[in-house]
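User: I'm new to structure prediction. If I give you an amino acid sequence, what do you actually give back? Let's try with this one:
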Amino acid sequence: VQLVESGGGSVQAGGSLRLSCAASGITYKYCMAWFRQVPGLEREWVARINMPSKISYYADSTKGRFTISQDNANNALYLQVNNLKPEDTGMYYCAAKTNGCTTAANGFPYWGQGTQVTVS
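Assistant: Good question. You get back a string of structure tokens that encode the predicted 3D arrangement of the chain. For your 120 residues, that looks like this:
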């Protein structure tokens, strides 16, 4: 399994970005998620989607502003992030797992290298 994120950048508060995760080696049976991390803090769950059912869940801090989606035809995962706030700043990671879904970072065996989002 290989995950490669892209789409991060520097934006002003209130701005938007679309993060992408190109996935290879996965099937539609996977659970995929986005996490973010700032130096010195633990990796924080942002959103997840159960690919077979397409049911998604969001952390309270991102609900209503972030949207996670999947593109099975292109093996891609997206995170549309709107109305960005300075506290959204961090490295955003794509993660994948089989056998159920979770919000715990240690439950995901597959990770990308991350894409940086900076909000000022």
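You can read the tokens as a compact description of the fold. Here is one thing that stands out. The mean pLDDT is 94.
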